[in-house]
Specification:
The protein is mainly alpha-helical and 199 residues long. It has seven helices and no strands.
């Protein structure tokens, strides 16, 4: 599964792979909380989008489970402050849902764009280092891209709020990942960059 002779810069790639799993598992956990809060508000204010939100939340629940199952064979563990994701995800989901349908879809677009960027980097790194995890992430990425396309399609307008909120929510998503993984997301990106240079 993992070739221990391959090095990421001066590091064993297994370290980066463990970080990839920690970051992805934390992100999916947060997405579940975002959708959960949005669904709770949407059921009262705009119930027509609830089925779509529930379907996307179900996908995230499945992704979270798959990343959790991939951890033990690679000696990875979930991050220690999942409560941060619970609180942050719920607050973000609640506030964006109060902003209306369009705000919900802007939030989904911002989060999914951030996720897609992370996954693209990971797939490049994993192609020759962990083919099994590469295949898992590639299949998950397809569903995340479907969420992104649906969010873009459902937005009635893309005015100033879209331009302002997209980078803010994307930045908050990155910040939550960084905080909840004790900075492992930064080390993960550094190690993947080193690996690209040495390949």
């Amino acid at each position: 599964m993992l070739n221990p002779s391959r090095k990421s810069g001066n590091r064993d790639p297994a370290i980066t792979i463990r970080r990839i799993l920690k970051v992805n598992h934390a992100g999916e956990f947060g997405a579940i909380r975002i959708y959960g809060a949005q669904i709770a508000v949407a059921q009262r204010l705009f119930a027509d989008i609830v089925p779509s939100l529930k379907e996307m939340r179900d996908d995230e629940i499945d992704h979270c489970r798959l990343f959790r199952e991939a951890m033990p064979p690679r000696y990875a563990k979930p991050c220690r402050v999942m409560s941060l994701w619970s609180l942050g995800g719920c607050v973000l989901g609640f506030l964006t849902a109060l902003g209306g349908r369009n705000m919900v879809w802007i939030c989904t677009e911002a989060v999914e764009r951030t996720v897609h960027r992370h996954l693209e980097d990971q797939l490049t790194f994993l192609a020759s280092r962990d083919p099994d995890l590469h295949a898992l992430i590639a299949s998950i990425q397809e569903q995340e891209l479907a969420h992104l396309r649906e969010a873009e399609h459902n937005q009635k307008r893309q005015g100033p709020s879209h331009a302002v909120l997209l980078p803010i929510i994307g930045g908050l998503t990155d910040l939550m990942i960084w905080l909840s993984t004790w900075g492992d997301s930064t080390w993960m990106r550094v190690e993947m960059a080193r690996a690209r240079e040495s390949d």
